[in-house]
Design brief:
Blueprint (H helix, E strand, L loop, with lengths): L13 H8 L1 H12 L7 H8 L3 H12 L3 H19 L4 H7 L5 H12 L3 H10 L9 E5 L5 E7 L3 E5 L17 H7 L3 E6 L16 H15 L4 E6 L1 H12 L4 E7 L6 H4 L2 H17 L6 H10 L5 H14 L2 H12 L14 E6 L7 H10 L4 E5 L11 H15 L1
Parallel strand pairs: 3-4, 3-5, 5-6, 6-7, 7-8
Antiparallel strand pairs: 1-2, 2-4
Helix pairs in contact: 1-14, 2-3, 5-15, 10-11, 13-14, 13-16, 14-15
Amino acid sequence: MDDSPIATDVRTGENLLLAHRDPAVSRALHLIHTRYAETLDVDRLAREAGLSRTVLGERFASLLGEPPMRYCTRWRLQMAADMLKGERSNAAQVAFAVGFHSEAAFNRAFKRHYGHPPISWRRNSREQEDDLPPQQVRYCTAKDGTQLAWSAVGSGSPLIKTANWLNHLEFDWQSPVWRPWLRELTRQNCLIRYDERGNGMSDWDVPDLSFEAMVDDLETVVDAAGIDQFDLLGISQGAAVAIAYSVRHPGRIRRMVLLGGYALGWGLRLSGDELARRDAMVTLTRTGWGSNNPAYRQMFTGLYIPGGTAEQLGWWNELQRVSTSPENAERLQRVLGAVDVTALLPQVAVPTLVVHARHDQVIGFEAGKLLADGIPDAEFLALDSENHVLLEHEPAWKAFWSATQSFFRS
């Protein structure tokens, strides 16, 4: 077992996609992802890959940025964290279930990776689930009969968050990625959020999975909530939905914040190799999304939160699995790739703050600049981050909330 420090800043995403295109490295990865409970060493991985130890190590490191056994150890710890969250197993049982040969070695590796021994880490993660107001999930019916799940939490002035890729009202509530967001959003507001059609707790089997239907769904939720005026937060594709809604109903929105958004979907925004890579990822969704091997979902996770901890990466992987089906995941991505609200930008009459991470690996920085330049009198904030969804432990988190809260109070 590799006993050296384990990197917690995991960057997979496009690298993992490239690794799976290498047949030999892909075979080694499959063995790690599916047989991690067994005794694995470089010799066995090399035999599976059909390469020498040296060549496998070089190829693996060049594609994934770390040697095979370092990656294997990190993967085992991620699986262990998932077991600790969802089962009553003790540390010894989890240790052997993920391929460690002793509880002591497992405890040392887990503490080095997560900052706490397994049992106290599990206790702390459960205690953190009690610091939000209670949530009641409700349902409303869209124009075409689709059932939409929504909730209202907290007290104060109403704030609506548009749906984004991907949401699940109940699963997000326990997420180490979204839970800090929910704390901030409910601190001084009544937060209204909903699951987009085709995913989460809303209907999955829907005939119309179009951008116009997504805007209609926001109208439906607003009407169900019975509020006349509110602030609006749009993240990722939720920004385009927010823009379209604001043009339809300018008098209902008080102020609007758009984070990591775009006016043009990826199919219209990207070109050349970038477009080919994104299209390949969408195509791969068809066969990989619903499989028991989470390596396919990890490709998306590594792009959305490359600065995430192992716990956050694991939760994001699982969020994708529980949020939608492989068929809907592909359909949603195709629809979002064709979004074009550029003609609406000059019509936005709502005070708007546009925020974008400089090194966003999902939506390039220029997409945020295009929004800010196209919306009359929009304010623009650039954040020093590579995460598409901001994480609580990064400096950009404080900068975002300071600017957002000041903007909403204006």
